Amino acid sequence: MRQRPADTVSAVLLALGLHAVLLLLLVFGLNWTRTNAQPAFGSPVSAELFDPDALSAAQRRALEAPPEPLPEPPEPVPEPLPEPEPVEEETVPRLQPLPAPVPEDAMVEPQPQAQERVPEPDTVEQDAARREAESELAAEREQEERRRQEQIDLTERQRQEEAEQKRRLARQQELEKLRAEREQIRREAALAEQKLKQIAGARARQASDEAAADAAPPPGRPDGDSDLAARYAAALQEVIARNWVRPDNVRLGERCRLYITQLPGGQVMSVEFDPSCPYDAQGRRSVEAAVRKAEPLPYRGFEPVFARRLNLNFTAQDR
């Protein structure tokens, strides 16, 4: 049963009151014993009372007469004093500490209902339950250790896979870099070879053009004035070169044979290039653009040597 604080206070107050009553009874008993105690030595003194008016004349004279002096007593010899008897000292009992209240002495209210009986635990079942709990705890620890080891193994595998993937990626990048360098070397070699071929072809065409130019008549009618035809060819070269922007891949002095179809007055109808022309597509487009930009081509003064189809050797020059 649970003890209330009020019950404890009541028990302490009752114990204090009981001790106070016992102390008062003890003090009162000591005082009463001292008052009724008889002297330990001598006889009691008795006295008789009388009325002075009731005395006779002789008794009055005897009382009024001076008393006779008493003889001097001999000097008393001092007797040895007896040793004092030990007197027991009266001691007052000390206050004793109050006993600690116990739940059994506390004033408690009766329970309205009887407390249920708590069954005593079975030690065998407790041991079995304890062993079962210990085994479960050991199994949980073992499972936790297994999970931790699995997590460590998984982390290690992931780290190894990431390292292997990085190595494969590095090897792949290195191979791609080598392929790119090899392709670049191949392209550079092919370009150099093409340039060599172009140079060789240009030189061969230049030589053949120079030989054909020396043997062929000037543009215009074959039977015309050769000096006027030469001036007409120079004027065409001059006006086309003035409107031409040389590309970087066309070398200075490189010649290209082209055929120009025109109308009287110098209106250009078409521009065609001989297959032997060493200019690439960009160079040919630049020459055609210069021809069309230069129209109308020179005509006045060159009527005797005018031809609808011109055979012109254009030479790359910077203006």
TrEMBL record:
Specify where the region named Disordered lies, as residue ranges.
59-171, 198-227
Biased composition regions of type Basic and acidic residues, renumbered to the chain: 127-171
This protein's species is Luteimonas salinisoli
Pro residues: bias regions: 66-84
Signal sequence interval, chain numbering? none
Name used for this protein in its record: TonB C-terminal domain-containing protein
Composition bias of kind Low complexity appears in 200-215
Q: Which SUPFAM superfamilies match?
A: TolA/TonB C-terminal domain
